[in-house]
Amino acid sequence: MRHATSVEPGLKSLRISPPFFSLYIHIPFCRNLCPYCHFYRIPPRPADEDAYLPALAREASTLGPRSPDPVRTVFVGGGTPSLLPASFYSGLFSMLRDHFNLDGLMETTVEVDARVTRDELSALADCGFDRVSIGVKSFRQTSLKKLGVPHDHEGSLALVSWAREAGFASVGIDLLYGFEGQEMGDVVRDLQTGLALMPDHISLYALEECGEKGPREGDPDATAGMFREARRILLAGGFRQYEICNFARPGHISLHNLNYWMDGDYFGLGPSSHSALTSRGSRKRWANRADLDGYLKNPSSVLEELCVEEPEKRPVEALILALRRSGGVELEAFTRRYGIDPRTLLGPALGQFREMGLIRSSAKVIRLTTRGMLLSNEVFERIL
């Protein structure tokens, strides 16, 4: 078991913090195939839903013997996981315990859409989930229409309180911004409405175009202004930014997602899921193709080996992941873990990034500036 070399804000009360080992389970079923979504999803078919848990169990039986002990976080995403009944998730947790060590579990998260009901939330909490992420996208009907999302924004206003009543220890909402036709006032009102509901976590995602028929990205300068203003509003509202797109109240950081950014290991189950496992300094990566029919017939038939990152190449990927965190890269801890100073990896680019106002560095830490967060893809491409 690897212990963290430093503790993120909001994690000081935890005995163990990332990096550790996590499980992700993908639920591909979705009642509305939103035109902006990049994730693998298909319309629900009853026969497929019935066959899905047995297929997950077959994959888990092959992964279980290879897993590090113990599993610290479980995240169920999609798709729309809340489309499946509570009995599926009771069976899922029972199955996972058959193949993995869940005794040290610290966090269990499920994603739901904004059409989830009060009873469905209660049933999911009763199954063992302690954290929920609600895909609100926007509280404004005009914005939802532009995004191609069918739900009524009025229904979203009760979801946070319903989730609290259900017993979830942490309740988060997801919001989208930066799409064509959206104005600064729309973003501000979405955030004001969201803050008034008192969630514990807010994920703020800039729209990325997905195909020719989906909503288009807005003007880049306007989108940058929206990010800056949204960040200001959330920080003033008592949230801490711990990653480019993610903000949380103290004590409510997503440990599962933080494990990705702190270069932890994880297994993904289900079509389109990804896995990464470290052994003797090398990291093996693999993924399942986005093919539900193939997965249901034989999960191993959709497996694709992606790459093996040798010890000398892993630090570059780890550096990019670490720069996504608002805390940045702690130089001493990074050097101790990977055997190389991150300033050496950056080379002359470090000075150039500083001159361009993209990176701020000290004797202990390197981190992205707000401008660097806005241009993070360009920074990461340059590092690679």
Task: State the helix count.
Answer: 16
| Distance linking N and C termini | 29 Å
Strand content: 15-25%
Radius of gyration: 21 Å
Q: What structural class do helix, strand and pairing data support?
A: alpha/beta
What's the count of strands? 15
* CATH class category name of the largest domain: Alpha Beta
CATH superfamily of the largest domain: Aldolase class I
Largest pleated sheet = 9 strands, mixed
| Domains (count) | 2
Helical content stands at: 25-40%
Compute the average pLDDT: 92
By CATH, the topology of the largest domain is: TIM Barrel
Spatial strand sequence of the major β-sheet: 7-8-6-5-4-3-2-1-9
Structural notes for this entry:
With 384 residues, the chain is an alpha/beta fold. It has 16 helices and 15 strands. Helix 1 packs parallel to helix 2 (86-99). It has 2 domains: 21-260, TIM Barrel (Alpha-Beta Barrel); 315-383, Winged helix-like DNA-binding domain superfamily/Winged helix DNA-binding domain (Arc Repressor Mutant, subunit A). It has a 9-stranded mixed β-sheet, with helices on both faces.
Main traits of this protein?
globular, nine-stranded mixed sheet, about 375 residues, TIM Barrel, alpha/beta, three-stranded antiparallel sheet
